[in-house]
Automatic annotation (TrEMBL):
The protein's name in its UniProt record: IclR family transcriptional regulator
Assigned keywords, A-Z: DNA-binding, Transcription, Transcription regulation
Lineage, broadest ranks: Bacteria, Pseudomonadati, Pseudomonadota, Alphaproteobacteria, Hyphomicrobiales
GO biological process, one term: negative regulation of DNA-templated transcription
Domain IclR-ED stretches: 42-225
GO MF entry, a single one: DNA binding
Record Gene3D superfamilies: 3.30.450.40, Winged helix-like DNA-binding domain superfamily/Winged helix DNA-binding domain
Positions of the HTH crp-type domain: 1-43
Stretches of the chain forming a coiled coil according to its record: none
SUPFAM superfamilies: GAF domain-like, Winged helix' DNA-binding domain
Length: 225
């Protein structure tokens, strides 16, 4: 990545970005010259340290493994980071091949089932303000981009206790998510199961996968402090 691109993405002055990059370079996290910079494998130590120290991951992983095995589908866990969701854990069923979002992958919160489940933790007024500030760009032809409709959809998801998104983040892919709560009821993450529309119908999402996710959420809640 060029210095100019890094400054553009961060919104910082070029001189500030250059100082930061040189500091990261001295720490061994970045290599490059004054024009091009790239990450080194050492950054993986930071990621692995986060995952190892995150209580959610350590508690959730074995339960997600059991959920994925019973569902025979990938089960993923995400947290909210600004206007995006970041996937921090993933469980794959015991079979030869399966697809799913990798750990560290980011997606817009507004058009994903995990994102809407996480956004639903906000009170209505705070949620409305957050949506008003968001950059809402269609990811597919069915993405909800009307902000009032989006607000109503997330409020409905809060009432229902789950979020189902059908082809809004990726064409031909649907997923269902539930909020993951800690012992006091606060939402700290969201778990989902998804699949391609030609293989998994909406009814199956609700009838087969939703109970599994609800069981997962209920089991883990008293364990998260």
């Amino acid at each position: 990545m060029t210095l100019s691109k890094a400054a553009e993405l961060t919104g910082l002055a070029r001189a500030t970005v250059r100082r930061i990059l040189l500091t990261l370079k001295a720490s061994g996290l970045v290599h490059g010259d004054d024009r091009l910079f790239s990450l080194t494998p050492r950054v993986l130590l930071l990621a692995s340290s986060y995952l190892a120290s995150n209580q959610i991951n350590s508690v959730m992983q074995p339960l997600m493994d059991a959920t994925a095995t019973e569902a025979r589908e990938v089960c993923s866990l995400a947290v909210l980071d600004g206007d995006e969701v970041v996937f921090i854990a993933r469980a794959t069923p015991t079979r030869m091949f399966s697809t799913g979002l990798e750990i560290g992958y980011r997606l817009p919160a507004f058009c994903t089932s995990v994102g809407r489940a996480l956004l639903s933790r906000m009170p209505d007024d705070q949620l409305g303000e957050a949506i008003a500030r968001m950059s809402v760009t269609a990811m597919t032809s069915t993405t909800v981009t009307d902000k009032q409709a989006l607000l109503e959809t997330i409020i409905a998801a809060r009432s229902d206790g789950y979020s189902l998104v059908d082809g809004e983040a990726e064409h031909g892919f649907r997923s269902i998510s539930v909020p993951i709560r800690r012992y006091d009821g606060g939402i700290v993450a969201a778990a989902n199961i998804g699949g391609h529309v030609d293989r998994i119908g909406v009814d199956e999402m609700k009838e087969r996968f939703l109970p599994l996710l609800q069981k997962l959420a209920a089991t883990v809640q008293p364990l998260l402090v």
